[in-house]
Each structure stands twice: as C-alpha cells, then as structure tokens.
Design brief:
By secondary structure, this protein is an alpha+beta fold. Helix content is about 30%, strand content about 30%.
Amino acid sequence: MQQYTDFIASVLQKASKIANDHFGNVPTMEKGTDNNQVLTETDLAVGKLLVSEVQKKFPEHNVIDEEAGVIDNASDYTWVIDPIDGTSNFASGVPTYGTYIGLLKGNQPIAGGIAIPSVNEIYTAEQGQGTFCNNKRVYVTSEKKLSSVLIAYGIDSHPEIDNFIENEGKLLMTIVQNVRNLRSSNSAFDGAMVAKGAYGGWLCRSSKIWDNVGLQIVIEEAGGLYTDFYGNPINYDNALEKTKENFTYCTASPALHLELQRIIHSK
C-alpha cells in the first residue's frame, strides 16, 4: 500500500509550477561565504510551499528544509526538502535542476520524490513499491560495463582543503578513462537520469542531507545501490542535527557500483 506517493507527486507538481513560472528571471544572492552556494526567491517560495503542505498533511512530523531549517516535533518521521537542487543552474538559465523531497522513518528513507520541472518529470518512490516517473515504472540500467554508460560526477571547489581539487581531479581522470562519457549538471537532474537508466551512476563528495534522502529511496526502489563515496551505508542517525554535515555518495546499478568502488579504492 502506498501511503505517501500521491502526496509527494501532488506537492512536486505544485513546486514544478512555481519553478517553471520563475525560470529565466531570477536574481540571486550568495549564501554566506561559500560561493558554491547561491539562493533565489524561488528557493524560498518552493520551500515555503513544501513545508506548508507537509505541515497540513502530517502536522506531527519533523521537517528539515534547506532554507527554512529544522522543525522538531519529536517525531520518528522526518521530511527532508531541497526546494531547488542545482540553484546555480536554475539562476543561470540552465534547465538542469530539480526539487527533492524525502521521508525518513528513524534513520531509514521510506518515501521520496524528485521533480525535474524543465522536462515535466515527477519521480516518486516508496519502500517496497518501486520507482515511477510520471506513473510509469522505471529502473536503473541493466548495462554491466562502465565503458558502455554515461557517469555523472558532481564536483565543487574547496579552497579550504589542501589539494582537494588536485586529488579529486586525479580520481576523476581515472573514472573518465573507464566510462563511455562523463556528464555533470551537479543537480537532481543527474539523479533522475540514474533512476531511469539513462546514466549508469553518479558520484559526489560535497552534499547535504537534503541532497540525499529523497534521491536515495528513488534510486534504491529503481534497483540501484546508494552508499557514501567509499561504499559505506549512509548514516541518517539524529538527522535533525545533521544539517551542517557533509555527505558523500556513490550511486549506480549494483554491477556498476562495484566497478566504481574498485576504481575509488585503487587510488
């Protein structure tokens, strides 16, 4: 029985309308001192909508929203929201961006969704029920060879960490040499492409909890694996306290995930 799918699809449709209505005409501001992070009025509007919808439907649940912060209702259930993932793309008029919403029960993702407004796609997933794109079941790729697939890789600058870009660049070079081609919108768009089997996998070493919960359940219910960058389970314990924590991930079909882990652990 699907408890949350209809709700998730409905609110993501509303979020997509707001994003589409404002796309291409959005002033931005930087968030703090990190020039990798920008904010638009659309982020705030979509976040306000999603938080409001969750509070109306599930008033007893907790909420983590990238922009609004934490609403702690001492519940075992926590909704985790990223209003616009890929804000830099969105603000620059690049259509590869999206919205995430996910639900944790304790420390486990049990439902979630992704909206890709530019192509009018809504992905929904619920534990044990599969992943659907616009009500059609989707699966990760069945391709077994990295050399036959596109792989996405998200990378941000980290001047505060010595040699971060240099070391990541070396690993990225090895990955590129082993795949068909590399892609990088560094946004929810890449995750959606993995879920529907268009990309073989996606790796990222710089993200937050709201970039992961909705994405993880969508990928897993489509048949994929979702771990941290080094193949370990993602830890969502005490989720309300993890809004500042960095998350890494490696997500792909099981066969391709194994191949990516072999490359990562060979370096």
